[in-house]
Amino acid sequence: MKTALLITLFLPILLLACRKDSFITSADANISISADTLHYDTVFTSVGSVTQSFKIFNDNNQKLRLSSVKLMGGTSSPFNINVDGFATSEATNLEIEANDSLYVFVQVNIDPATGNLPFIIRDSIQISYNGNNRFVQLEAWGQNAHFLRNKEVISGETWTNDLPYVIQGYLYVAHNQTLAIEKGCRIYVHADAPVIIDGTLKVNGGKDTIDRVYFNGDRLDEPYKDFPASWPGIYFRTSSHDNVLNYAVIRNAYQSIAMENPSPNVNPKLTLNECVIDNSYDAGIIALNSSITATNCLVSNCGKNVALVKGGDYTFTHCTIASYSNNFIQHKDPVLLVSNTDGTSTATLTALFRNCIFWGEGGELEDEVIVIKSSIDYVNFDYNLWKVKTPPQDIITAGIINNQDPQFDSINVSKNYYDFRLTKKNSPAIDAGTNTSITIDLDGALRPAGLKPDLGCFEKQ
Questions:
Q1: Under a CB-based contact definition with an 8 Å cutoff, are residues 170 and 194 in contact?
Q2: What is the per-residue pLDDT across 310-348, written as a single tens digit (0 to 9) for each?
Q3: What is the pLDDT of residues 20-39, one digit of tens each?
């Protein structure tokens, strides 16, 4: 009796074990695939791409045999696959345990092309089992480019907008040499590739989006395309002089602009006109006893937006300098630090900020503007809006709007979307400036002649 009872109890278990060890062969067997399409944003020819992957799930209570996982373009495809740890163009007789899965990894490498426009590359992966075929689509945008490794400008050069420029190793402009970059150029810089200027950098961008000159990291795939510190930044060293950036957009660097020591002549070491500096991990602009003239510039969401230390000579007119804590950078430092010292030594400081906005949110800062100076230094804030609880001492001020939200057009931290234009009629920054010789804004739109302009880099239209 006991024997019969034990057989009765264990028979279902044995049957279930045997069932799991057997293969399901029905055409009705279920599998699920974690992606139906893998999309690769712009991949520069000859560089390759980040590897993406998807999983194939066996949703059955029995083992499943995949007759094949096949790259339809075969060995001539620009895509490469790795199936369950094996690099191949077709894997066969793959076993997946009941309620288990396997990985398929996919990379794309695009051969150089003669065209200068993006082109699309497509292929697919066929997954065959029990007489069924399922497909995962592959799609990549490829583009040819100028690939520059350890590039040294030792004689004057001009870059034109024929192809993007991909910088690997480093880019160096030698003493007394000039690199001119024409409108519409796109410069993509690798993670370990600094841009070092001992000579002169001239950026000649235009007001239209397509005509601006862009500096960015060379990872354009998700999620890396929005990561700060994707590349080191632009460094203007001691001998550098007469640098002018017009309509430049510098994003996702570690330090977008770093510079040291005064200009070797009477001109500003760096002139920034209608520039955007955004999402720099450490600093948007960091200057050590140097000289900058900035007009209609936006410096946003950087670890330190603007840090001007150990003295120098600076003029910022119609600039918006703003930060919001987000998923990439926590707002911990004031958006503007002006100091005559670096902690070890001091130098004379002269600074004028006119018609600017200094604002930050999401951190614990009460003072977004910090000034450290001696009695002989000159620091003037002339018609500005700032977020400050304790105003800086021993400075010149006029027309200050204190702790009033500038009411930017759209701020959505969760979606990483920021529009710093002044479109809301109740913004305190509208018509709050003083007249200057500046006739346009960051968009290239006209500022009102003879009337009070708006504060910041954008004029309400």
A1: yes
A2: 999 999 999 999 999 999 999 999 999 999 999 999 999
A3: 568 999 999 999 999 999 98
Q: CB burial class (10 A; 0-12, 13-18, 19+) of residue 130?
A: middle
Is residue 230 within 8 Å of residue 192, measured between CB atoms? no
Burial class of 341 by CB neighbour count within 10 A (0 to 12, 13 to 18, 19+): middle
For residues 249 and 276, the answer to whether their CB atoms sit within 8 Å is yes
| 53 close to 81: Cβ distance less than 8 angstroms | no
The pTM assigned to this predicted structure is 0.85
96, 125, 97: which is closest to 37 by C-alpha? 125
Q: Determine the Cα–Cα distance for residues 435 and 229; give it in Å rounded to an integer.
A: 38
